[in-house]
Batch of 4 targets.
Target 1
Amino acid sequence: MMPGGTPGNGCGTPTAVLWELGGDPGRWPPVTAAYALGHLARRAALGLARRLFGPEKLPPCLHGHGPDGAVTRDPRHPNACFLAEDTGGGRIGQILIVAPGGFDRPALAALVMGERLYDGTLGEWPVRCVWVGPAQDAPSRLTRPSRTWISATPWVCPLHLKTGRSLEGMLIRDLSLRGWPPPSAVELLTSVPTTGGSAALARQDFTLYFPTRTGRPRPDGMGSLWRLTFPLAIHGPVTLGWDHHLGLGLFRPDEPEHEEAEETSRDNYNTLTKNENFV
């Protein structure tokens, strides 16, 4: 189960929303642009909320700032993460939006209105909200239970490496801070396969910067790819490190049986999309 997530948030509040991309799947953005798509999805969600409620009443779970305007520093990150997902062939076909602390009604009102992702450089893609509910039940590979998880996007270390610190040690520390159990094995990888295994991607293939993202200097400018194995299966999504709320440091199950389970899930969830009374 997600650290701090539902149904364990105790109030039955939805913790996940799924946006599906429309148009020609052959023109969907590549998974290497997942970080950029996460940024565009967040920008679209905030734009919708601004249109509905005005700039002074944006849902805190979407913008990630506290009442004093400061960025939330909770290591378990109760606010929304915008996770672009490879749905096959190395193409992003959906955006999983999760908030372990739950989405309130204003946030849901904005998210179910999702219509498009747009950027003058990357392009434009129509989107629609197809699912709302608890994260662990979302029709997404990213939420399936698994013992073994592999990088879907590079993990970017959130701290500068100092004497006596290793990347592996910092990754294990990151897992602990976010409430995950200690892994039984950690493996640094030179490349990872796309969903379905159609291609192998190295860390340098991924977009790790977005022109409009400003703020603190990034401690790790390279990123790294990993395979994590846990003693018992855990539910995703698993997101770690710098800008994980925009899709960096995203892991996906690395066990073949979950590919088949996901296909069954995707067949079944079409019945859910017929009911659009999400809010």
Note: The radius of gyration is 18 Å.
Target 2
Amino acid sequence: MREIVLEARAVTRTYGTGTGATHALRGVDVEIEQGRFTAIIGASGCGKSTLLQALGGLDAPTSGKVLLEGQDLYALPDAALARLRRTRLGFVFQAFHLLPEYTVRDNILLPLLLDKREPDEEYLALLTRQLGLTALLQRQPTQLSGGQQQRAALARILVGKPRILMLDEPFSALDSYLREEVEGEVGSLLANFVGTALLVTHNRDEAYRLCKEMIVLNEGQVLRAGTTKAVFADPQSIAAARLTGCKNILPCTPLDSHTVRLDGWDTTCLLYTSPSPRDCS
């Protein structure tokens, strides 16, 4: 039986009013299953980060609900919501947000100190060893490379043992070499992470390698959701096919619910075991 830990119900998010309004999310419904790693992919400006922020209690929807284990996040008082974010959710953004006046160790432990929790020194040692940070703990963030700063930001989130990780384009600020290296490390950590993870990315290869579930967004709406392999194999729309990297898109005419004719290919027909794609016309 599926255990839904986080969900959006008819979520909209509008910025501004009147003719100048921007509709970032348009009636989004998603369900995130406990223990699964889900990618949210789409082109720039499609609403990926807006959806992640709404799901993480950072940006209240204009309408609709966000439920964490059945609790309406935005019905909580501000103080309760802030504590929930600190103790049960973990965010990694494009920017590392390390405080330059603190050491790497103090940056990593900052969420625990703010919540007046004692650090688990054994777990801290394990985490920093896995991320290659052990020898860097007494340095300042400005003394670290970009890859090391990203590892420190990830350690800061994981040290609090969140139930849900939320990663917003975490590798975008890194060059291609560091990106592959850090992505591999994150993949290894996620393999041992017992909670749930959400990854926002425009990189379909990254999403395919790291996540078993996928949500495809376009212009603030969900085009496709399902297992990553199923979405890639059957994107169900032209827009989703392009976003997942399909290059062989041909015009066709539906003959019945399971058969299409390829236009310009004489009598060539394709028979589908599943219903024909809805964009076929």
Note: The chain is about 30% helix and 25% strand.
Target 3
Amino acid sequence: MTRKYIIEIFQSLVVMLRGLYFSKYCFKGVSKSKTKVRVLANGPSLNQFLEDNKGNSNLNDFDYIVMNYMPMHEDFELYKPKFLCLADPMFFQFSHRIDEVRKLFKVLNSIVHWEMIIVIPHNRIKEFQNFNYIHNPNLKVKPINSYTYAGLAKFRNSAYNLNFSMPGIYTVANLAIFTAINMNYKYIEVYGIDHNFFDSMFVTDDNVLCNRMKHFYSNEVSLMPILRNDNGKNYKIADYTQSISNMFKSHDLLSSYAAFKNIEILNCSKDSMVDSYKKR
């Protein structure tokens, strides 16, 4: 038995012990009546899906999981999502996007007339309780154990299934897909995970790493410096590409976990860079 393997077994035991406490943050008590779900992410390709499904009478065949600012889209009420996933620090603390976040909270208070669950990482629950001003009785906040583990598959997938841990949340889409899997949907379609970061990334003459940002909910293209979440400073390209690599790795872990639970995931995003799931 190699030293590396012994270390991984020890780490697995730590995950199990620590996860036993945090496993209280899970989907226990959340019910569903459908076996199919669609995850609607933030990539520009989602626009085509939304356009194609205007007036579609078969939308009710699926449950829906959305994220971030989707509630501000004009078609949001057509889908009546069951889950809204939030993971970005801007939803839990003051940032330069505070006005947008306040508008989101206002929309959630005013238009959600069906039961919807807001899924957040468990380590953000106190911040979210203090930061948001959501008072709509149709909205319930569900913190999920976000203690991460990416070790041995034989331990890893069981730990995910027991809510002891999860893959890292490097994009809110990771959280949304994990939500779909742990809610035991047997068929998952994912839209809007374009993840074509490398197409829009560039470095200015002042050595500032930037992205040409465009989301489905806006036609505007903005040039945004890529800032770290932990200290607000500019990313160096080596650190940023490592973070992107971690995000893609998280998709790989989610794909492995879905296979462990005999769940089919189909990536329906046009020109997506994600190669973890079968593509339509």
Note: The two ends are 42 Å apart (CA to CA).
Target 4
Amino acid sequence: MTLTLESQSFPASEIRGELRAFKRQKCYGYCLASLDETEIDRFLDVEGILNSARTAKDSLGTTAGIFSLNGADFFIKRYNAYSFKRKFRQLFGMPRPFRTMRATEEMLKLHIAVPQLIMALERKDSFFTRCQAIITVAYPEPLTVAEQISFAAADGVIGGFLTSVARLAAKIHRHNIVHGDMKMQNILMRQLSDMEFALGLFDFDGVQFGPVSMRKRCKEVARIITSFIKVCRQNDIQIEQERVESTVRSAYNEAAKIELDPAILKRYLRQIAAHKERYPL
């Protein structure tokens, strides 16, 4: 296999490379340019890979897992068209794998760490989409903020962490990108020392491109705040909600050079807290 590993400060190791378009009968997408035709065919066996992968998620909307190939670990996610309505919606707009690909490219331009994309594909069966999937490099665990919450919420770290996450949100908003689900499970974190860390993003299923309205800003920031508080409480970590809200809001306002509307932010904080099924951890 022609993939190469390259050491980085974040992540610890990553397969890197440019993407190129490919096309098969009823299947098309983008893949790592260094893949040969045989390797492409191996990655296109989405069902076979998922059947042997270690399941990471299996829900109505997506099925995901971790698998190994030639000594490297990869993450695969298939988007499930579980209803006629879902299949019909897939006919319009940019397919989710390609939105993820665009988001990945935009994040790299902004020097934000993201998992290297290996393949984004769509397979059609006559008129409707049969399969949509993405494959990325799988990072070693612990991977997310949620998995390292005791470090992120520790004295001496929490203030810098909340400020950094708020600045990260402001940075992508300044470049007309909304992540769409900036919960602690979707924020990458690597601990560099007792006080230092590096952050990144992944899971761009809800990404949006274009001008970022005040409503979108407040909703994204509210998601950060409520998710952090929920993960802390789930792990029996005592946290002051007002301190979290104040730190995140102030840091975002300073980085974005715009004042979040307090009323809109409060509304989204209440809405997310009241509708847990719509905003799962």
Note: The CA atoms of residues 74 and 138 lie 4 Å apart.
